[in-house]
Amino acid sequence: RPTDTGEVVSTFLEKNFGMYISDTFTAEMEDELDDIASGKRQYEKTLADFYKPFAKEVKAKAKSAEKITSLGDAPEFRCPICGGSMEWKLSRMGKFLSCKK
C-alpha cells in the first residue's frame, strides 16, 4: 500500500503531468532508451527533446497547480461542530481529519 504522501504525489502527477506518467509515454521512452543503448540514438538529443518541453510545463504548473492535500472522504466520521462530512488531509505533521465545509 502506498504511503499517504505517495498517494498525494500520485494524485498531483495524474492531475498535472498525466502525459509523463502514462503507459504510452513510458513505452515510448523505453524504446528511445533502448535505441540509445544500441547506438541508434544520441542521448543528448533525446534528453533535450524531452527536457525542453517538460521544463516549460513544470515552470507553468509551478505557478498554476492546485495544492493537493486531500486523501479522500472519511464517511465514518462526522464533524463534531456542524455535523458535516469529514475528509482525511495531509500536512507536514501527518494525516488529520478536516470538515469538508
TL;DR of this structure?
The chain contains three helices and three strands; from the N terminus they run H-H-H-E-E-E.
Describe the structure.
The protein has 101 residues and is of the alpha+beta class. Helix content is 50%, strand content 22%. It has helices at 4-16, 23-37, 43-64, and strands at residues 70-78, 85-91, 94-99. The protein has a three-stranded antiparallel beta sheet. The longest helix is centred in the middle third of the chain and has 22 residues, at 43-64. The chain is elongated, with a radius of gyration of 20 Å. The chain starts with a helix and ends with a strand.
Uncertain segments are none
Strand content: 15-25%
The number of helical elements comes to 3
Q: In the residues, how many domains can be counted? A: 2
Spatial strand arrangement across the major sheet = 1-2-3
- Radius of gyration, taken over Cα atoms and rounded to an integer in Å: 20 Å
Q: What is the chain-wise order of helices and strands?
A: HHHEEE
Shape: elongated
The major sheet is characterized as:
3 strands, antiparallel
Number of E-type strands: 3
Mean pLDDT: 92
Based on secondary structure, the structural category is alpha+beta
Approximately how much helix is present in the residues?
Answer: 40-55%
Please give the alpha-carbon distance between the first and last residues.
Answer: 29 Å
